[in-house]
Every structure is written in C-alpha cells, then in structure tokens.
Amino acid sequence: MPSLRYFVLGLxxxxxxxxxxxxxxxxxxxxxxxxxxxxxxxxxxxxxxxxNLVTMEVVPGLGKPPRKIYSIAETGTQVLQAWIxxxxxxxxxxxxxxxxxxxxxxxxxxxxxxxxxxRRVQVAAHHAAxxxxxxxxxxxxxxxxxxxxxxxxAMATAELGWLDTALNxxxxxxxxxxxxxxxxxxx
Amino acid sequence: MPSLRYFVLGLxxxxxxxxxxxxxxxxxxxxxxxxxxxxxxxxxxxxxxxxNLVTMEVVPGLGKPPRKIYSIAETGTQVLQAWIxxxxxxxxxxxxxxxxxxxxxxxxxxxxxxxxxxRRVQVAAHHAAxxxxxxxxxxxxxxxxxxxxxxxxAMATAELGWLDTALNxxxxxxxxxxxxxxxxxxx
DNA sequence: ACACTCATGTAAGCTGTTACATGATTAA
DNA sequence: TTAATCATGTAACAGCTTACATGAGTGT
Lengths: 187, 187
Prior knowledge:
2 copies of one chain form a homodimer.
Chain A: H1 3-14, H2 19-28, H3 38-50, E1 54-59, E2 67-72, H4 74-85, H5 94-102, H6 109-136, H7 143-170
Helix pairs in contact in A: 1-3, 1-4, 6-7
The first copy, chain A, binds a DNA duplex through residues 1-5, 18-20, 36-40, 42-43, 46, 61, 63-68.
C-alpha cells in the first residue's frame, strides 16, 4: 500500500519527468489527490532508481539548475501493471480512486472500464448504506449527522452520475443496469 | 494537526460514548471520513483522559463486557472550540471538511454558516483552477488527466450545489434579531 | 465445535510531513 | 538587496495502521 510510490511510477509511465515536474503536475489535481511533499518524493525517486524500475538522465539546465529526468524502465512497467491490476479495497477513499484515474493512460481500455464499473458498485453500496442509515435512525440523529449524511449522499450521487456518463462514453455497448437519476448534479 | 484527536473529542461533545461506539458511529460515515483503527482510537482516549479533557466511567455490561463511557469535560469543550474556530486550510481534503461537518452540533449556527461559506469559496477556487487547467493545455493532456479533470469538476460542482442548498436552508430560519455581529462571518 | 459480535488494549512498523539546507537565476 | 522561482535533497518526527492478544457471550 505505499500508494505514492506507485503513483509516481505511474506518472513516469505517462511521460518522463523530473521530481519537480511531478510536484507541479500533481498540484493541478491536489484537491482530489494532494501533492506529495519533497520529503517523500525525492527519496521515492531514488529508491525507484536503485531498484531499476526507472532510469535517470541529468539534463543541464540552460540558465536553470540541472534537472534529473526520470523514465520508466521495463521492470517498472511490469511492477506498475501488477499494482494496477489488483482492485481497490471496497472502503477505498475518493483519493485512491482519483490516483488510479490519473493513470488511466497506462491501463488497457477493457481494464479501465472494469475499474470504473467496480468503483460504481462500491459507490452504489456506500450510497445504499447511507440511505439505510438515514432510514433506520433518523430520529436519534443530531444536526451534524444529518448534514454529513446529506453531504455524503450528494457526493455519492454525483460520482455515480459521472461514472455512468464516463462508462457510456468509453464503452460502445449500453449498460444493462438501471441508470441512476442524475437530476441532482445539474447546476 | 492531529485531527483524529479532535474528531474524537468532538464526537464525545455530541454524546457520551465508549471507544467501541465511536468506531461503530464513524463506520457509518467511513466513506467520507474513514473510521479510526483501534490502534489509534484507544490510545487517544487514554491521552484525552490523562489530560482531563474527558471523564470516564466504567459501566458493567449486562451479559456483555464492561464498557468505558467517556464524556467531555469543561476543559475539553474549550479545547475543542479553539480547534473548530481555526479555519480549514485552503487545500483541505474533502475528508477534513466532512469531519468538521459531523461536529456541526458543537458549532454555533452563525459559525457553522461561516464555515460552509468559507468551504464554498475554496471549492469554487478549485473548480475555477480545474477549468483554467482545462483551458490552458487541453492539447497536451492524456486520457488520465482529462478523465481526472472531468471527475474533479463533477465532484466540485456537486459540492457547490449541496453547499448552496444547505446554506439556503440554514440561513433561512434563525434570525429574529441581527445574528451577524462580527464581520468575519460574511465572506 | 467453530465462528462471530462485543469490548478492550499494546507493540512494531510503515507512510508521509515538517523543517531545514543548498545554490543558481531572475525580477522588484 | 531582497525576494521569488527553479531544483534538489536530508533528518527527525508525527500520525496512523497492522497484527496481535485477551475474554465473555451468542449463534449455527
């Protein structure tokens, strides 16, 4: 589960980059994923290099500090694939899913669709659990619990909606399952 | 930033409970918040007790193991308030917001509204940043980046929508007199 | 007989952050 | 000259998880 390690490896699979580049790129998605600190990023890069999962080339900067450009190696792609192939835990947080989503380019289309479908099942389960929680003990719930429940439902509904549209776009055939009403996510 | 510590304290502010109760309750919201492991929960409870932020009473179980019921102490409410009063960081993850939302019962209405407004501003900023990222370099983006961007936009839009409805509901009813006395509430 | 829920706790370890340290280049 | 961006790195530590350990009752 050292997810950052594989996340970095995955980014290098998309494109050869320096540690600094990785920081900048992940900052764009920091709301979902959070960007790694230098204290974790650089040691990870060195470890990946020592294990021969990546290669490194020093590119002297033109009026800038020299940059260490890392590229994924053959062993690295295999290790990455093995990591991506194992499904996410059912209680995986949004962050873990978003991390894998960002690596979609390294995933064969069929597997990508499988991942999204699996996520759909898990989010639907959490959605159902929240609805059930709302039904069983609404009486004894305080303001915080009620607000959080609503918030969770809104988020889950939105995610289900997005997953459905994304799946429709990515796959030619229509979904056999009943589509979720997505009126709540319009704005 | 030992958020779990204050989260536990906050739950005890809502209602006196045992460690086990806290685990069960937070499991209901585990998708958003994640439920603390025993390895963190029980040591936290002991620490809170030793610092006199909570009190403890052993209730012998009837045909069940005895339970240790923790209640918040006066010092605890003060410490909790001080923690809640400081605003969330602008890059605070969804999880951090949901944690505070669950403690809404301990927050005076005016402050709760201020928190939601502040969150709205931050989510709107991230939403705008994603849109801008989409505009500036759509060309050079791979599948993963495009999907993650869409996903982030869908989530941010949904959250903004929920925040707006929640704010409308919360600010509608309670204001017979002037509820606003400090300028920090407005945003 | 076996496994599960209720209920507590500890020890070792992993993952990641904070804060520091370096140094060159460019803009106010 | 002061600060900011680019670019790399380390050491100390915080925070949390995993896995283990205990034990009574309850269900199959």
